[in-house]
Every structure is written in C-alpha cells, then in structure tokens.
Amino acid sequence: MYAQPQPRLPPTNFTPDFEQRRPSPAREIPNDRTDSQYSPYPLQQPQPRQSQYDDASYNGDGDGDDFYQSQSQYDQPYTTRSIATQSVRAPSPPQGPILDHSHLRPGNQAALLSHERTLELYRANAKKTQDPDLQFEFAVFMIDASKTMPIPTPTPGNVMEVEKAIAKREDLIHEAMSLLKRLADRGHMPAQYFLADCYANGIGTHKNRQDFDRAFPLFVLAAKHGHPDAAYRAGTCCENGWGCRREAAKAVQFYKKAAAAGHPGALYRLGIAELNGELGLSKSPKEGVKYLKRSAENATAEFPHALHELALLHERGIDNVLFVDYEYAAELLAQAAELGYAPSAYRLGECYEYGKMGCPQDPALSIHYYNIAAQQGHRDACFALTAWYLVGSPGVLPQSDTEAYLWARKAAEAGLVKAMYAVGYFLEVGIGTEPNMQEAIQWYKRAAEQGDKRAAQRLRGPTNQPMIAPGGPGSVLHRNENGSGDSASASGKSGKDKDKDCVIM
C-alpha cells in the first residue's frame, strides 16, 4: 500500500489590511440584567484520572543512587522568592571553572559532538555546580533528549538493538525524574511544577500512564509557592476530580489565585463560569465579560480562547451588557487567528468568503485564514480549501482537482461526514484521482453510517453510470450563499435540471 500524498498548503503571502489593535475593555452598558442565555464554551480536557499504582506513590526519595544525593547545600530547605525571580540561587560554588569547554575545537578543527558526548559533558558540568537552577535545566534537557533519542525501526534481526535503545531512554528519564524529585523536595518551585507536569503527561510513570495522584499534590505545592500555571492546573484537577475529590469551590480558589497573577487560562475559565453560572457561581454576564477582557489582554498562543469568545459575544451582543460590534469582533478574531487559533481563523475565512460580519468578500484573505486553520488540522477549514481548489481564484489560487481531492480526504480522515461523501464521489467519478469504485463504496458506507442521506442514496442507486464531475472538463462548480456547491454541465442546463446528486459540498 502506497502512502497517500499530502495536500499542498495554499500561498500564505496574504496579510489582513485592517488595523490590528490590542483588545480594549469590552463595550459595556451599566446594567446587571442577566436574562440572556449562553452556551458553555468547551475546555480542552486532559485524559481521565488514572488509578493509584502500588509503585507510584510520591515519597520524595530518589529512585537511584546518583551524585546529587551527597550535595550538602540541600541539608536546609530550599526557599523561594516571588514569581518574578522564580528561585533563590544557592551559595556560590568554590573557586574554579564551572563549565568545562576544553572539548571545543575552534577553527578548521571544529566538529559537532555526538548526542551521547553532549549528554556526558552536560552531566559532568551539572555535577560541578551546586546551583539548583542549573541542575533543573539539566533535568529538563534530559527529558527533552529522551523524546528525540533515536529508536531503530524494529525488525526480526535487531531486537536486541531496539531493546537497548529503549532501555537507554528509560534510564535517561529515570535519572531526570530522580533529580527533579530531589529538587522538588528542597522547595524548588519550577522543579515541583515540571515534575507534576511530567506525571500528568505520563512521563516517568507506570506504563507511561497519566498519574494525577502524584501530579496534583505537586501542583498544589508549586501553587502555594506562587506558580501561576501550577495554580491553574490545580484548579482543573479540582474541577474534574483528577487526583483529588471534585470540589468546585476549591477549583475557584485556585483559579482566582492564578487569575490574580494574570494567567489567561484561569481568567478565561472564570469568565465562562460567570457567564453560565458554573462552578457554583451565580450567573453574572457583566463579571464574566470583565474576566474575558482581562484574559484577552493577556492572550497567548496556548490561551487565545478569550479573544474568540469575546468576538462571538460582540457578534450577537448581550442585553444591557455588550453592544453588537461586527468590526471589533472581526479584529478580535484576527488577533486569535494570528496566534494560531484554528476556530477563529476558520470563522474569518468564512467571513471573507461570503462577506459576513461586515467583512468584504476577499478570496485572498479567505484562503489565507482557511490556510491558518487547516495547518492546525481544522477539518472544516480543510474542506473549505477543497471548495476553493475546485473552482480556483484568478491571481490567487489555481484550480486543481488533485488538491481538491487531497484536502477533502484530509477532512474525511479527520471525521467530517460531508467530506467522506465528497471523497466517495471523487473516487466514484475520478475527480483528482483515479476512479476506484470499491474504495468509493467504502467511503459512502462510512458517511451513511453517520447519517449522511446522500451517501445512503448513492449506495441504494445505480453507481455504474457516468456522472458530471464538479471541477472537471466541461463543468463548473457554483457557490451559493450557504457555501454549498453544485455542478452543472456547460451545455446550459437550468437549475431544475441539475443532478442533485452532484452537490458535494
């Protein structure tokens, strides 16, 4: 079986011509009416809580006999300062070179070091210092190195080689986790959070499973030392019952602690809770908007959600709280899109394709934003590019049946039902690919099983008759206001005579 070719991304040299500006305070009307209804905005959830393992209890003892145990400066608890300084460095080490650079060869004899040699030098340098921050950096380096350590492709003849490579990677993780535990026991705040994050993501745990039973206490510990991300993660654990009992009130406390430090994720969650009356809070749209506004002001690529939610609120308005403001909504969507947030980019792609929310119809900007969303795997954006490639755009995007098929297949493989039907039709007729009736039937069955009536009709009706191919020779794909496409031959058929089966978008 040959690997499927990947679709090419459209040109990306399109730049929005409207002014970008930082989100300003939401336009509010001084009234506390709360008669509007809001739909909750789904949060990205981690995997469900895992059960306690016999060998996974957190006890602070090292898991191996390494050189870090004998260092005397850890006899006293490690203290921390504010989040701005992160930590207090230990007393200065003895006089002498801390980092050994003798291995470096300048000039014509310069050479790159092997992965193992780099690790050995880093370990040797870490042994010479008593600075917990540098040791923490070394532990992080080992975790990162374990992720990129090459593992040979298993074959019948290299079983031992693969096992050795896997064992080497596990030893590296074990050494890093032992060092992180020692640092965490001495009160090193970044180590406490990073170790908790490793447990929560199944790094260094039993069978590489998520272990919130060990992660949650460390999140709480780092939060008490002033780590905003740890406070936010502790809040999500309390809200969902990961590693602890589900307690909404305690979750709010942790969220507010993180929000006080300007954490955009915590501010967003509190804003949604106020809008919808969640987490035991009374419904208060005005307070919810304030939280969302603060989150938008601190938005990052990891937490752009408040920009998107504020845009939706300004699109429909809130009685006695927010005016409808399409222009501002489009600006907020653009800011979220430039941070790589796929839903915002897809929404803007629609706006510039069909002229919604006061945006002009602009194929270049539409394709630009669909492109941003498609790069993030947004299935609707991938299918939108299918439509654009079927018809093309003069001077912007060349017409290509092959690219249309590849983008439709990408959307179908991501689970979009209408894309499954389209792929079946492309394979049946031979649009952008060689005709393959057996594969077409399989895609029709997948779409029909999920409720696509057109796919069910194709399976019931005759499938061996030639049909008009959208985007193919002698035909054109028409786009209507709803974004659907239908195919009519160039022979001048009226709308009533068009084959309804050829509506694929």
Automatic annotation (TrEMBL):
**Which Pfam family, just one, is annotated for this protein?**
Sel1
Question: Which residues lie within the region annotated Disordered?
Answer: 1-71, 452-505
Record key words, sorted: Repeat
Q: Where is the composition biased (Low complexity)?
A: 36-55, 483-493
Q: Which Gene3D superfamilies match?
A: Tetratricopeptide repeat domain
The annotated regions of Basic and acidic residues compositional bias extend over 494-505
Which domain of life does the protein's organism represent?
Eukaryota
Q: What is the protein named?
A: HCP-like protein
**Species:** Pycnoporus cinnabarinus
